[in-house]
Amino acid sequence: DVSLNNLALALSKKYDRSGSTHVLEEAIQMYREALELHPPGHPHRDSPLDGLASALSSQYDQSGEMHVLEEALQIYREVLELCPPSHPQRGTSLNNLAAALSKQYDRSGSMRDLDEALQMYREALELCPPGHPSRDSSLNNLALALSTQYDQSGEVHVLEEALQMHREALELCPPGHPARAVSLNNLALALTKQYDQSG
User: Fold this and answer.
1) Between 8 and 65, whose confidence is greater?
2) Which residues, 6 or more positions from 153, have their beta carbon under 8 angstroms from its beta carbon?
């Protein structure tokens, strides 16, 4: 069972480099086989579950098939249930579920999806206090979701909160940081929205 999961993980990494649909499909097959050997109640079920959900999310990005995203969401929810408060992977699980919900929102336009994604991102940020190595990415995730919420609602306070998060994320990405360019770009886009609103 460990060998299957490791093979699936290696195939997922190969897909990240190659973008090959065939490689991704093989990774999904391996994760499904590994999952059969990790039934509910197995202490390590979360690992192949998380891998399968991630691979399905990538498959949705390629295919746009909604049933694939729906399966990924269902699996991400199961992973989160296996990561209760104080679990070391809970923050990652929250972010993964929120990202999948954001994808579903992009397709459905349902505010319920976006609101749930925001809730997940906020909880994930609480698990990344100042000094946490993932705080900048968590701030960025929440800020982008807030910016989307502003696009829908037009509520200025939502955009102001997004700007605050983007600025804090940028402070955590000093010159030379690999995420600095993305952080600068995100803040600039949010400032442009503020200009459009305020003149």
Assistant:
1) 65
2) none
Burial class (CB in 10 A: 0-12, 13-18, 19+), 53: buried
Closest CA to 10 of 39, 24, 93: 24
Mean pLDDT computed over 119-148: 96
As a whole number of angstroms, the distance between CA 48 and CA 53 comes to: 8
The H or E element containing residue 113 is helix 111-126
Please report the pLDDT score of residue 5 as a whole number: 80
pLDDT digits (tens, 9 = 90+) for 165-177: 999 999 999 999 9
Instruction: Please tell me the distance from the alpha carbon of residue 141 to that of residue 9, in angstroms, as a whole number.
Output: 24
pLDDT score of 143: 98
The amino acid at residue 189 is L
Residue 186: C-alpha distances to residues 164, 180, 196 (Å): 12, 10, 16
Print burial letters for 131-155: b (CB count within 10 Å at least 16), e (below 16).
eeeebbbbbbbbbbbbbbbbeeeee
Nearest to 9 by CA among 60, 50, 70, 68: 50
Given pLDDT bands bounded at 50, 70 and 90, which one contains residue 1? Answer: low
Q: Please give the Cα distance from 110 to 151 (Å, whole number).
A: 13
CA 132 vs. chain centroid, Å, equals 18
